[in-house]
Specification:
Elements lengths: L2 H7 L4 H9 L6 E3 L5 E3 L12 E8 L6 H17 L2 E9 L8 H8 L5 E4 L2 H4 L4 H7 L6 E4 L10 H40 L1
Parallel strand pairs: 3-4, 3-5, 5-6
Antiparallel strand pairs: 1-2
Length: 196
């Protein structure tokens, strides 16, 4: 298919598709000498093979760790009802605003599932979950959020504390960095005066 058709199928603008192509982010795309970009049609999955699901559950703190098992059990029941084959269940304790969660990173680079199942969107990320749902289809996978309703907010306070702590650490680090820079400038000026 042409790049314009690829853009239309994926709900993106042609310019975005072109940028993805130039960045090498569209698998099986090639440009002909005429300038036309062709994206090979994706392989149609065998309808007889079950959809492979990866269940991802997360809580913000160890105080809520017992909720991991109940989240996972609800998602197991959902996957069974949909006829999904559960390939993996990943449990993680970490803030939803932390973008360096090790287990989530491992899930996102693992190609051994077709659908990533989460209970609420904020279980995958408090901010930026939409980016994951946009990028997963490029690897022929998708994100499925079971409960589209707002979460009960049990982890929001923990995430808020994490945000405040993070910004305080940055401010303190900037102040310390500024003091170090001022000290270096003072030493350079003193050395310059001694040499003069």
């Amino acid at each position: 298919m042409r790049l314009s058709e690829f853009a239309k199928r994926n709900g993106i603008t042609y310019q975005t598709a072109w940028n993805w192509f130039k960045a090498g982010q569209i698998p099986n795309a090639k440009q002909f000498p005429s300038g036309t970009v062709i994206v090979e049609d994706e392989i149609i999955p065998d309808p007889d093979s079950p959809t492979r699901a990866c269940i991802y559950v997360r809580v913000s703190s160890n105080q809520n760790k017992k909720n991991l098992d109940s989240q996972a059990e609800r998602l197991r029941q959902f996957c069974n009802a949909k006829g999904y084959m559960i390939s993996k269940v990943v449990k993680e304790v970490g803030s939803g605003i932390n973008d360096h969660r090790r287990r989530l990173s491992e899930v996102l680079v693992n190609p051994d599932f077709d659908v990533l199942v989460v209970e609420h969107e904020d279980r995958i990320a408090r901010i930026g979950a939409n980016y994951i749902s946009i990028l997963l289809p490029l690897t022929h996978r998708r994100l499925e959020v079971v409960n589209q309703a707002e979460d009960d907010g049990s982890d929001i306070m923990q995430d808020f504390v994490s945000i405040v702590t993070s910004f305080c650490a940055r401010i303190y680090g900037l102040r310390r960095s500024r003091r170090k820079t001022e000290r270096i400038i003072r030493e350079v000026m003193e050395n310059a005066q001694e040499e003069a």
